[in-house]
Design brief:
Length: 496
Amino acid sequence: MRVLMMSSEISPFAKTGGLADVAGALPQALAQRGHDVRLIMPLYQSVDRFKHRLLPLSRRLYADWGNERINAELMRCSYPCQYNIPTYFLQQHMLFGRKGLYGENHRDYPDNDRRFAFFNLAVLYAIKALDWCPDVIHLNDWQTGLVPLLLRYHPYIANDPFYQGIKTVFTIHNLAYQGLVFRDLVSRMQLPWSVFTHNGLEFYEQASLLKSGIVFSDHVTTVSPTYAQEIQTEELGGGLEGVLQDRMNDLTGILNGIDVRAWDPKSDPLIPANFSAENLSGKKTCREHLLAKLEINCKPKRPLIGMISRLAEQKGISLIMEALPPLLEKGCGFIVLGNGEKEAEEFFLKLAKKYPKQVSANITYNENLAHEIEAGADIFLMPSRFEPCGLNQLYSMRYGTIPVVHQTGGLADSVVDYTAASLKKKTATGFSFNEYTPNQLQRTLERAVAVFEKEPEVWAQLMQNAMNLDSSWVKSAISYEDVYSKVLNNPRHSIL
Ligand code: ADP
C-alpha cells in the first residue's frame, strides 16, 4: 500500500508531544511490513536542516488563502533509519519559519488558520507535483483535518482525476485540541457554504478543523480502545460526542506502540549505565547519577518519584498539588521535567524551594533528561484527568520505573494495577486509581511507596512484569493495516 503520513510534527525533526513520537515511529513499522510510506510536515525554523541533510526538490507550488497567493517549496531528506522512508518538508518561511510550532510565549499564533489551511491544501498539491498518488492519506489531529474536506469539495481537487481514488484515515491524538478558527475559512479556501453545518464543519459558529477530520474522513482512529469509548461520552467528548457516536462503526481505538530502539534501557546512549530485566545493576547507577546531577536526595529507602509532562490541566496537576506534599514530608524524592501553564510551573518551582534537598523542578524541554529520569526514577507519576494514550507510562515500564496512574484512556489500557490476583498472574505493572480525586491519588501513591519500602520482592516482580511487556509498534501497525484495507475496499464514506 502507498501511505502518506501527514503530521504537523514528526520525531526527530520537530516535537511538542506524543503526536511526533507516533508520526515518527508508526511509519517505520509500516515500512518494515513492506508498505511504501512517505512522510510530510511543515519546515519549522527548529528543524535542523544540516543534521537531517535537507535538500530542495525544485518543486515549487502555491496555494491561495482568500486573495493571498502563498508560494512554497518542497524539501526532502531521508529519514535517518534503516527503512529509508522519504520525508518531505513544506518550506514556507512566512508561515513556518518561526520560533514555535503553534505559538510563542504561551500564546497561539493568531494566523494558525491560515498556516494549517495552507499546509493542508499545499500537501495535496505537493503529491501531484511529485506524481506520487497515495492509496491512503493518514492524517493526524486538527492540523491536518481539512484534507478530507478539500478532497471532496475544493474546486481544483475534487474534480481532478488524480485525487479520485485517495482514501483518508484520521487519527485523533487528543480531542481537547479542536482547531477552532473563524468561519471565513470556508470562503478563503473556496469551499461551498453547504459544508458549514452542525453535522459538517461548524462548531458553534466557528469552523473546527478537528471536526472536519472526524466528519469527512473515511475512517477515524484514536490512540487507545478506552479513549475511543470515552470520547463518545459527554464527559470527555468535548461537544463532539454526537458526531463521534455517528461514526461509531468507523471509529477504532488502536493503542500506540513505542520506538523500542530509541527507548531501550539495554542500549540507550543517553543514560549513564545500561541495564535490562536480567541485570538491573545499571539502574542503580542511573538513580545515583540522577540524584547527584540534580543535587537532591531521598531519605534512606524512600523512592524517587519522576514526572515528565506538558504542564497542562489535563495531566492531573491539581491532584498533584494536594497529594504530593504529604509524600515529600515522608522523605520521598521528586523530579519534574516539563513546561506549560504558568500556574503549574510556579507550583513546582515553589515546591523545589520548599524542599530543596528532595525536589528538583526542571521547567524546560529536555530530551536527554527525559531519558535519564525514565531510567533513574523508581516511580513514575502520571495521574492525568484524561489521557488518549500516553507514552511516558510505556517508556517508564520499559525502564522498570513503576507508573502510578489514573485509570483513564491509554493509561487504563496499558497499566495493570497491583493486586494479589494480578501479581499471581504476573500481569501487575503499576498502581492505578479510578476516582479522579487528590485523596485517591495520595492513597495510591502511599500504596506504591509502601510496597517499594516493605515488599522488595513484590516490587522486583512488578519491575520484571513491566520491563518484559511488548510495547513495540508491530501489533498496532497490523491494526492500522487492517483499517487501511477496510477503507480501500469500501467506497468513500458518504456524508451530508
Ligand atoms: P502528550 O502528547 O499529551 O504531551 P504523551 O505522554 O503522549 O503526552 O507524550 C509526551 C512525549 O513528550 C513523550 O515522549 C515525553 O517524553 C515528551 N515530553 C513531554 N514533556 C517533555 C519535556 N519537558 N522534556 C522532554 N520530553 C518531554
